[in-house]
Fold each of these.
Amino acid sequence: MTSTDQPRRVRLHHLQQAKEDRRPLTMLTAYDALIAPILEAAGVDMLLVGDSLGNVTLGFDSTLKVTVDDMERAVGAVARSTSRPLIVADLPFGSYETGPQAAFQTAARLMRAGAHAVKLEGGTERVPAIEMLVAGGIPVMGHIGYTPQSEHALGGPRLQGRGSEGERLWADALALQDAGAFGIVLEMVPAQLAKEITKALKVPTIGIGAGPRCDGQVLVWSDMAGMTEWTPSFVRRFGELGAQLQRAAAEYVGAVRQGSFPGPDNYRVE
Ligand code: KIV
């Protein structure tokens, strides 16, 4: 969506309309009230309170250690600080895989915290959970391809859906759509396969490492902004915020040590 035709709140029908009009959708992760309003002001359609918050903000080496409490706190911060983007919250590892009841309980907590939809990883095996959430009024986004919560089963971050694996991905995408998912993240999937799935599905696909022909794109905000030294190859760094921040902090440290901060403008004598 462009800044001229932005709705007051992005809703599911806006996403569906964007697919029909072939307007690319934009999604970035957000985890707090400092960054979320900046991304909103940039015009992003959806904010994903992803479980990548474990790696990005909590210093974990994977998403597996993220809890529902962690997610709930982050969703609340993003919801309190924004008013337009659709907020999608990840169901964290261990909080939904045992079945529909567990999924509903976790999703209800995140919806109460301010999410407008939840995202869960997995294919056909998630159909019962998705059906229950959708029946309970909770919009669900699917996530297939490379699913970080299954990193050990999948042998680490690698392209999924090559060769005969592609058939399973097709089956998963169709099953999620039929179960009522309003959109599907395709992560680290060959671009040709992502393009064909996107064309076949009625609901929007959101790609990450899945080429340009998905209905939209998602990135982890700190990767997009160049906050860290390393970024995955499917990321484009749209800024170098990490280096800028370091320069600003180094100037501050130098100014304090030299006695030039605080300066006359920064304090009152009486
Ligand atoms: O948690 C996350 O950031 C995600 C995206 C990578 C899609 O799930």
Amino acid sequence: MNNRDYARVLQEIAQLMEISGENRFKIRAFENATRTVETLPEELEAVMDRGDLKELKGIGASIAQDLLQIRQHGTCDIHRSLLERLDPGLLDMLRVQGLGPKRIKLVYHELGVSNLDALKEAAESGRLRELKGLGAKTEEKVLAEIERLARGGDRTPLPQARHVAESLRDQLAALPQTERIAIAGSIRRGRETIGDVDLLVSSMDPAPIHQTFCGLTEVKEVLVSGDTKTSVRLHNGIQVDLRTVKDEVFGSALHYFTGSKEHHIELRTRAKRQGLRVSEYGVFRDDEDTPIASHTEEELYQALGLPYIPPELREGRGEIESAARHELPVLLQPDQIRGDGHMHTTETDGRHSIEEMALAARDLGYEFIVITDHSQAVRVANGMTPERFREHMARIREADGRVEGIRILTGIEVDILKDGTLDMDHDLLAEADWVVGSIHSHFNQAPDQMTERLLRGMRTGLLSCLGHPTGRILGGRDGYRYDFDAIVEACVELGVALELNGSSGRLDLNAELAEKAHRQGAMLVLGSDAHSTAGLHDLSFAVQQARRAGLPAEAILNTLPVDAFLKATRPDL
Ligand code: DGT
Ligand code: CA
Ligand code: CA
Ligand code: ZN
């Protein structure tokens, strides 16, 4: 660890003490120690090795002890106990520039806000401005900061990038000059994070398209402008490349700009052996200038003697060999989804009613949904007491009877508390059709403890699935640490499914872990985790990750008719 690492922990202690309202002198002591370490002209660890820590200004016996602990564990007793007593989510909030411990203290004590999600919601719903010294301006700044943090530096989380890309695509699709249009690049392949957005348009008359593109309100600056390629930076920092081609070569151009580079390299090598060439203009015989395929991607693969390879598999990980042997998995298709396993309503932190969610889901063609509002441990989300949950289930059943054309199942997203107990009366959980068990607190437990916590929750026999199983926030927080293999094994044994949570910012499980869980024999269920009717569309991100994982429809519980869906995790039914 370098001096900056030590200084960071000391500073966090000072900030957390300030939030918790500790005595001024204790806070000052850690602030002084932070400064000493930050400005130290040599390695702190060299000072430790000499046994000279206490010689340093502002470092007494007690902080010297803390520093030695930090050297061993990356944290110390006082740091850990503050995080446990308050909330580790506060560390994320401290990264929000312009907020600071004083204001966080206010927000924490007045609104109970202790993590970025809750902060975002408080800012969006205009609750920050009700606090002394905070205004609408603060809310705006906080939201912009959260967005910046969510981007986690250069790469943008897929959901955010795809929403932006879809909006641009739709605007350009409306132009009379546009023939075909598609989002290409890493978004089309469903990579978790994306470097830039790639849009492809076919047109006989591209100039007006490039012109309109440069003038869109989202655009902040034009980086490159031309007749076939324009690059811009948007106000939100995302870069977008637009390319236009003639419609005859749309298929091969789409293939080229979808990538990945690795897929292309392998494909070209293979083509070469067959006396063929592949470029963005098509597939060519070695000695000819007229392509034998260029109009669609399907024709392109066919010309190469291969079955179609879906974009999600084009990562150069052996998909070409599998395709050549006709061993590609048949991937889950969006229209095979019959229901959504995770959503919230106005009962807790959602924006729409049971009925509104059901009607929107019916419009998407679903046969069933599960309403899974929060349990009371999630105070910021207005989680339900047992009493409220009982009444909520009655309302869900009532809505189910009233709304035609879709089954509305009773459910809950129940917290798996820090000791593994479930945050709800067991008889009510047994009564619910579907129970998502999730972790929303004490993320920093030691791996053994976390594994035990999950196992204990699962052994109640009341969980249908584990919600957002790793807890990671895309571009933000890492997942909690536990023995993933052991949990998957227990899921198989106990008949508990693992969720692919599609909500923006999560993608959890991601493709890699979903594939692993599937290979170990676990059931998987997709959930949008929608907090509004619009949020139901986030299920498509879970579908895409399932496809990247190479999962067939049979691996996904959402493809089952509702009765089979219910029985899948309840062998007793
Ligand atoms: P990203 O933007 O970093 O998330 O990843 P991509 O895959 O979207 O990469 P990007 O935007 O640089 O390029 C889009 C596609 O264009 C890429 O997947 C394949 C193609 N491409 C770009 N540059 C090259 C290249 O130098 N060689 C080859 N074979 N293909 C390229
Ligand atoms: Ca890209
Ligand atoms: Ca690009
Ligand atoms: Zn949750």
Amino acid sequence: MLLTISTSHKPATDLGYLLHKNPARTQEFSLSFGKAYVFYPEATEDRCTAALMLDIDPISLVRGKSGASRENRTLAQYVNDRPYAASSYLSVAISQVYGSALAGRCKELPEAAEASREYEAFIPAVPSRAGEQILHRLFEPLGYAVQTTELPLDPAFPDWGASDYYSLKLTGTVKLSDLLSHLYVLIPALDAAKHYAIGEDEVDKLIRQGEGWLATHPEKDTIVRRYLKHRYSLVRQALEKLIEDEPEIEEAQEAHDVEEQAIEKKISLHTQRLESVVTALQTAGAKSVLDLGCGEGRLISLLLKDRQFASILGMDVSYRALDVARDKLRFDRMPEMQLERIKLIQGSLIYRDKRLAGFDAGAIVEVIEHLDEPRLQAFERVVFEFARPKTVVVTTPNIEYNPKFPTLPAGKFRHKDHRFEWTRQQFETWAATLCDRFGYTAAFSPVGPIDEQLGAPSQMAVFTRLV
Ligand code: SAH
């Protein structure tokens, strides 16, 4: 089984850095189902090709499987397409051998890892019982030129006709990490015989690798069904997650820092806001805290400094934000004692979630304005009816203050993903309704420098549960 990735983007040998594999030598990796090799058939300034070859041992696959039932021990277990045709084994190899590249990490050339460049990926044999068209339908919407060639069943016997296998060549200007995640998800979706048991893990992997493109892919349903091998409860779970995981949320997170902070910069509003939230949580005497929509973990890093906060759970819908949070909080170097206090999970605030129950307090900092009306309503119940912490701290911009930001055009929100920005009155009315419905009281404070007429740039409500 072979996957080659080529580029002519100069210097082409940068591909070696991006894949974290030195073009000068062949490297070998032991995987559970055989060996993987990475080598470069060509590596010059002008063009570079990295080949990932899997040497799968079908016999050891059978032997290794203690669960292989008697009736399954047929010839097909020994004579099959596994060694040759691209399958879910290729995805495993991509994630294990090209793991950093798949995650978009490259210490030497971080900018190149982020850049879209023209790549060519070639797989000599891809199974597709549903024919050639599906290959086009899966890859073309992602921006690739797709070239397929039907392979004969046996070139020595042309009369036998065509096989269900195709060679596949993709050419496109993409990020290398995107190319790898497209292959990671779409190759198993073509392979009718996924080798490992399909469990909830696979839903997570699918959502993670499909982040940023699967939710809007026109063949989303087909891909999810095929990737999860028609396990319908899992398919439903995945499709639900994909609805909530809309791309603008990701973009929102990325652009949030740059755009909103640029506008609010002068007064370092965000720092003031986070400090106000920490003070409110300290005053409430909270020991366990939820940070919902935690983003890159700024609040969490402040909470960690105070040992009063013995247990902190950060949740965000964006895997990417959580990855950044882990990096910024230096999870890999965190002492055991600190690690025990903190947990980061992926999840959406618009779904009831058992993991959120039993906390003293919840903070929702600059998140509600990203939720449109139906989502905001779902959020209200998730937090105030189901999670129901004793204290809930919510911050949101005060729209009245917007004219004071010199770079913000009149009538515009502070961020393009904001679905609304409220006046102080609107925020207080919203909060009062929640208090009525769910049995809380609320106190309001301005955050940031106060203008006599317009109030402060940001506003905070501290809700306290009545019983
Ligand atoms: N609280 C953080 C981040 C604010 S940006 C801070 O103050 O720094 C808004 C965050 O909300 C983003 O990280 C975004 O991914 C997250 N978010 C948006 N919709 C969400 C949802 N439905 N569920 C969970 N998180 C969500």
